[in-house]
Design brief:
The protein has one domain: GIY-YIG endonuclease (3-Layer(aba) Sandwich), CATH 3.40.1440. The chain is built from 5 helices and 5 strands; from the N terminus they run ββββααβααα. The strands form 2 sheets. The chain has a 3-stranded antiparallel beta sheet. Strand 1 and strand 2 form a beta hairpin. The longest helix is centred in the C-terminal third of the chain and has 13 residues.
Length: about 130
């Protein structure tokens, strides 16, 4: 089975597997306002509300993945706890770097994550629209 990138299945869910990797040099906004060009992997933090439940994830398609979280298309933590607001993200040049950063953030104390969010997005704005 080959999944088509970005296509929604007839049941409304995004394909579970992605076998084709997109490579492009489209400019992307970064959480701190900088523009990132040609970086394909993202580490991100979602929140239920300001100072609420946090979720740290990694993806190669940030728009698609946040859409899935926002619309509760996948069973799991974010659906169960209503974690639908993208409050932070960063780009990395490789999946290995993204996974290493994700693991680093998941091992951080909650206070450290909150400090990161307060420093980069003090009003906890939803950054999803800035991606579109």
């Amino acid at each position: 089975m080959t999944a088509t990138l970005g296509r929604v299945a007839s049941n409304g869910a995004m394909p579970a597997a992605r076998f084709t990797k997109r490579r492009h040099n489209r400019a992307r906004p970064h959480a701190n306002g900088a523009t990132i060009i040609g970086m394909d992997y993202f580490v991100y933090i979602m929140a239920s509300c300001k100072n609420g439940t946090l979720y740290v994830g990694v993806t190669n398609d940030l728009v698609r993945r946040v859409y899935e979280h926002k619309n509760s298309l996948a069973e799991g933590f974010t659906k169960k706890y209503g974690v639908h607001t993208l409050v932070w993200f960063e780009s990395t040049p490789s999946i290995e770097a993204a996974i290493a950063r994700e693991k680093q953030l998941k091992n951080w104390k909650r206070e450290w994550k909150l400090a990161l969010l307060e420093r980069t997005n003090p009003d906890w704005h939803d950054l999803y629209d800035s991606l579109l």
